[in-house]
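Annotated sample (chain length 164).
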Amino acid sequence: MLRPIIIRQAETRDWAALESCFAELQGFERSIESNRVDPQMIARDYICDLITDCERLRGAIFVAESDDQIVGFASVLVDFRSDDPIEERQDHSYVTDLYVRDTVRRSGVGSRLMRAVEAHALAAGATSLRVGVLARNDAAHALYLKLGYRDYEVVLQKKLGVAE
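Output written by the structure step:
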């Protein structure tokens, strides 16, 4: 039976769980995209950098908690800026991560985490929010579309000198 899930802002006591969730996310992404680094090599540094970025860019990390266990997280950077000179409006907010553990997937946790980051960005004055997704991550892409996001830009890649 699924226990109640609470969405709240992450606290210092959640850092180890965030590292674990990120490592699982990175491991999954590595299984569909070979250019991802071994999660165990970067999990701690990634979360430390994310916390620093949140402090610097008015961001936040939200966790989904059930029975005192972190079952997912999402993070947003409010004052994110594109460095692309062709964009007229370069300021936007950016969802850096969304991850939900297998045990509670497809139960609405991802949607609830996204609503939390959207509310944070909106309360901070953001007018647009972007999120990236790997092309082969169909489930995440479908969730974002369901939540009202639209494809903004598609980046294609070809490995040169390698038969695929």
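Annotation: The radius of gyration is 16 Å.
Annotation: The helical segments are 15-32, 39-56, 109-123, 138-146.
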